[in-house]
Design a protein that fits this description.
Radius of gyration: 23 Å
Helix content: 25-40%
Strand content: 15-25%
Number of domains: 2
CATH architecture of the largest domain: 2-Layer Sandwich
Largest sheet: 3 strands, mixed
Number of strands: 6
Oligomer: single chain
Number of helices: 5
CATH class of the largest domain: Alpha Beta
CATH superfamily of the largest domain: Metalloproteases ("zincins"), catalytic domain
Distance between the termini: 34 Å
Structural class: alpha+beta
Length: about 160
């Protein structure tokens, strides 16, 4: 894990400790997150996971905003318990009051979308095709049926795939 990220996590905890005049248990921190999320706070495990690709591509903003966002979730949980909303008043108080940052719920980082296979299914309608995801294709293999809304016939795999 990059030292800058670890140092930022620690700095966020120190700010919270100064603000609330109490200690907080430090989390386990990992860089094992992929996909669209920049970070995730696991409240009951006191663990933070961050996305290394989004960190690399957006380092400055990530360190300032994303790290504080995720730490604020753990701090709010330690202060207020389970009965609060994830981005509710308590979390917003920490973002604004402790970190002096906007309580943005979502990041706006550029995400690379990978190409996905689409499995082409057909019904009895002329020239009608249904591109289905790998997940739906697998469910059909396990017995699930999908039906055309027009002709009411079960969709049948054409044997073709495309990149969607």
């Amino acid at each position: 894990m990059p030292e800058q990220l670890h140092a930022r996590v620690e700095a966020c905890y120190r700010l919270a400790e100064d603000f609330f005049k109490r200690p907080f248990v430090r989390p386990d921190v990992s860089f094992k997150l992929r996909g669209q999320k920049a970070g995730v706070a696991h409240l009951h495990e006191n663990r933070l996971r961050f996305n290394p690709k989004l960190y690399t591509d957006n380092r400055e903003h990530f360190l300032e905003q994303t790290v504080a966002h995720e730490v604020a979730h753990l701090v709010a949980h330690q202060l207020f318990g389970d009965r609060i909303q994830p981005h509710g008043e308590e979390w917003q108080l920490i973002m604004r009051g402790v970190y002096e940052l906007p309580p943005d719920r979502c990041h706006t980082y550029e995400i690379e979308r990978r190409a996905r296979n689409a499995y082409i299914y057909q019904c009895a309608c002329p020239e009608r095709e249904f591109p289905l995801s790998s997940q739906r294709h697998a469910l059909i293999g396990k017995g699930r049926r999908y039906i055309c809304r027009s002709c009411k016939k079960t969709l049948i795999y054409s044997g073709r795939q495309t990149q969607a």
